[in-house]
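Possible regression after last week's pipeline update?

I re-ran a chain I had predicted before the update to compare outputs. Posting the input and the new output here so someone can diff against the archived version. Not blocking, just want to make sure nothing changed silently.
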Amino acid sequence: MKKAVYWIMGERAGRTIVGTWNWLWGMPVESGGKVAVAVAEESLQSMQEAVQKLAVAVAAQEGAYKTAKNKYETKVKEFKTLEQQAMIAQNGGNEEAARMAMSKAIQTEQILPKLEEMVKQAEMAVKASKDKLNRERMKLESYKADMQNMKDMSEVNEALAMIAKVNNEFDIGSAKSDFEKAKDAVERRNLKTEALAELSENPAEKLQAEIENMTLDDEVARRLQRLQDSQPKQLPE
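New output (post-update):
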């Protein structure tokens, strides 16, 4: 499915569409979770495929360059051979053959500078392509290392998230806080009740009650003493 989207929409647009689908499913790349790692893996795979295609193209360029270079070197040898043939024919007194060989040598010589320039251009193009391929390969290796680090970091993040979840689920700090609040409220209510009770008492009535209690105690003591005094005393035998 992903390759079909890339083929229809292009690589960059395809990655954008795939990322959008992930977001629509409630899994945005920006969350930095497993989906982000998956999208990064898809991008890395696309980069690997692009580098492989570039390597194939560079190999084809190098093949074409070698063909052009061989053709140029063949023409150079052909030119030198024609010159030798012309010289041999001239020395042998065969003027017609000498002129024919020299004519072909001149025609070949005229095309050599153009062929040489084309070969140099092909060599420069191949060199530039090889340099680009090397740079892209180095970038790819760097991205591979980043990918591994990203996976490791994602796993650590998942572990930390689970730890935080456990801590939140079993956090009794809020319960302690509620208990302390309830305790304080009860104590404040008790103090308030005691204060209201003290304020509700009549000082005069309280004093009168204390006097009455003292009087009653005195009366009880007096009567007990009277009973004791009224008992007959036993005479010693």
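Follow-up from reviewer: compared with the archived run. The chain has six helices and no strands. Marking as no regression found.
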